[in-house]
Design goal:
It is built from 3 helices and 13 strands. The chain is mainly β. The chain has a 12-stranded antiparallel barrel with strand order 1-2-3-5-6-7-8-9-10-11-12-13.
Length: about 280
C-alpha cells in the first residue's frame, strides 16, 4: 500500500474515533505519519488545538483549547495500541477566565485516552481498518453533566483512485456515553448509545497538502428512550511535512458533542472552526 494512503488511513481512524468521543481538540500530529514511522515499535505524538463556534452568539468570543500527548506501541504490522492524555481549558476573548460554576462553559480538566487500532498491512491491498477507543471525561463540565466517559468502536474501509490522488473512506461508529445521571443540569435526558456513518473524500493536492471533504449522519438514543439524529459536513486543509503537521478545518451540523458542553450545547447547530498543530516523534 502506498505510504500516502496508509497515512490517510491513520488520520481517518483518528478522526472517526475523535468524532465519536467528542475530542474536538484531538492532536493532528499523526497526519505526518508515513510507512516508515508506522513500522516503528514505539512512537509518540504531541499537539495543540483551538476551536470556536461561529454559531455561538456569546460576546466576547469563547475558545476551547487543548494540549495532548500520546505514545503508540505497534506489533505484527497491523495492530497498535495508543495511550494519551488531553489537557483542556477555555479562554474568553484571549484570556484564561474561570467562569461561574453553574455555566456550561467551564471545562478545564484532563482526559486520559486509550485505543486499540487495526491498520491495513502496507504490503497488502486490504482497505479495511478498525479502532476501539475509551476516553475518561474528567473535565468539570462533564462531571457536572454526569458524563463519566465514552467508548467507541469504529470500522470501515478506504479506497484509493487515480494513483492515490483521491481516497474515499467509509466508516461506521458505535459509541456509548457512560453516565452518572440520567438527566443533565438543565433537566434534559443525557445521551446514551450513538450510531454514526461518515464519508470522507481526501484529495492530495501536493506532496505536503491535502484537502478533505466530509459528510456524516448520527443517530443517538437518549436515556429517556428517545432517538434523535443529526448531520455534519466538514472541510479540512492539511499541511504535513516530515514530522510536523498543521490543519485548518470547518464543520457545520448538530452532532452531539459528548462531554464537550463547554463550547456548544448538546445537539444544537454549530459552525466549528478548528486550528491544530501536531508533531510526531
Amino acid at each position: 500500500m502506498h505510504a500516502n494512503l496508509l497515512g490517510r488511513l491513520v488520520l481517518v481512524i483518528l478522526f472517526f474515533s475523535a468524532a465519536s468521543s467528542g475530542a474536538v481538540g484531538t492532536s493532528l500530529a499523526n497526519l505526518a505519519q508515513n510507512t516508515e514511522e508506522a513500522s516503528r515499535t514505539w512512537s509518540a505524538a504531541a499537539g495543540y488545538g483551538v476551536s470556536t463556534d461561529l454559531a455561538d452568539s456569546l460576546s466576547p468570543r469563547l475558545y476551547f483549547q487543548s494540549l495532548d500527548a500520546s505514545a503508540t506501541y505497534r506489533w505484527k504490522d497491523r495492530w497498535s495500541a495508543t495511550g494519551g492524555l488531553m489537557l483542556s481549558f477555555t479562554t474568553l476573548d484571549g484570556k484564561v477566565d474561570k467562569l461561574q460554576e453553574d455555566t456550561v462553559y467551564d471545562s478545564t480538566g484532563a482526559s486520559p485516552i486509550l485505543s486499540l487500532n487495526y491498520l491495513p498491512d502496507p504490503a497488502m491491498p486490504s482497505p479495511w481498518f478498525a479502532n476501539l477507543t475509551g476516553m475518561a471525561l474528567l473535565d468539570s463540565a462533564s462531571q457536572r453533566e454526569g458524563y463519566l466517559g465514552v467508548w467507541s468502536l469504529t470500522g470501515g474501509g478506504a479506497w484509493s483512485f487515480f494513483n492515490d490522488q483521491l481516497t474515499m473512506t467509509h466508516a461506521l461508529t458505535v459509541s456509548e456515553v457512560l453516565n452518572q445521571y440520567e438527566t443533565s443540569s438543565v433537566g434534559t435526558a443525557n445521551p446514551g448509545t450513538s450510531v454514526s456513518y461518515g464519508l470522507n473524500n481526501t484529495i492530495s493536492v501536493s506532496s505536503i497538502f491535502s484537502l478533505t471533504l466530509g459528510f456524516g449522519i448520527k443517530q443517538t438514543r437518549y436515556l429517556d428512550g428517545v432517538w434523535d439524529y443529526a448531520y455534519s459536513t466538514s472541510v479540512a486543509g492539511v499541511f504535513a511535512k516530515d514530522n510536523w503537521s498543521c490543519s485548518l478545518s470547518t464543520a457545520n451540523g448538530g452532532y452531539t458533542d459528548e462531554g464537550r458542553v463547554s463550547l456548544w450545547y448538546v445537539d444544537q447547530y454549530r459552525r466549528l472552526v478548528t486550528l491544530s498543530f501536531g508533531m510526531q516523534f
